[in-house]
Amino acid sequence: MQDNDRDLLPEGLGDRLPQQAWASQQVRRMAHDVLTSHGYERVETPLIEFEKALASRMAGVQVRRMFRFVDPVSMRMLALRSDMTAQVARIAATGLAEAPRPLRLSYSGQVCTIKGDGLDPRRERLQLGAELIGTDSVAAAGEIVELAIESLRAAGATGISVDFTMPDLVDALSAEALPLPEGRIEAVRQMLDAKDAGGLVDVGGEAYLPLLYAVGPFATAIERLAAFDAPEGVSGGALASRIAGLREIAARLGDKARITLDPSERHGFEYQSWFGFTIYAEGISGSLGRGGTYRILGQTGHHPEAATGFSLYPDPLVDLLATEPPVQRKLFLPLGHDPRIAGQQRAVGWATVAALSEGDDPVALGCSHLLEGAEAIPLA
What we know:
By secondary structure, the chain is of the alpha+beta class.
């Protein structure tokens, strides 16, 4: 039996063939064009960093998901990036520490994790995003959600919907409005995550039960959340400012996306604070990304700075676009063609494929036109 192990790839990793690579490039280019047009400057970060740098810049970063190994030069632990947000945070806190705020940055690149996410076996994914550093205001959150929607639309997504959440909701309520013993806070979080009403009662979280029903289309769910926060005859509840902020963001989005609310959802929100969102598109299973407000530790590890951002993982969109063949605009250049004319054709948008022998078949090579003299003639 022939040994083909040399051609195997590790589980969860794969090549992109020309059609898929074209779709990936298209998604990145269109999204970055949107971000650039809104003043977000692109940065690039290394694939590998010291583990400590990736793990300590932001709360909640999970180093157990990273590939880690010892650097033979420094003898320190290195990690392969699993999330570029922490790297952009490092740039903001170091190289751009003196840059005027709010600071708008964008990025894209491959990230890798030890295991896939849920039912998705992929361990390498494209991450694309933007960070608005120096503020986590309602206006900043609204801009970020709007940009995430516009970026996905430009990249080819349709039927976009956004689910709002409040990642630190239990922390905010248990501090004063609905106090909980320290030992029960995590249990209440877990029961809310599981949407387990009976379990919530069992762990002493009866007062949090209404949160399980403040879920669904935004207009209805936000009213239920407001009624929970400030029952009839009571004003100025603990969540009043947050609820007002969510209403403002939703009003800003208008009909650009379908909006839902799940105030206690925390899955995937390792470091977000008062506001988070997950974004979906029609025809794609699972989410395409998430974002929200968070804090970055300063250069010395202190003096946290507010920020708002989003990360998209558009591989499912890339896969969908790759099934739709692009419009072919390739011009076959026969032997003996005029190089000057070929250059002119490329200047007006043609991709040219030059014959290398008499036997080259323009149709088999994917060409739609043939250069005859100075003219591009359609191939039958």
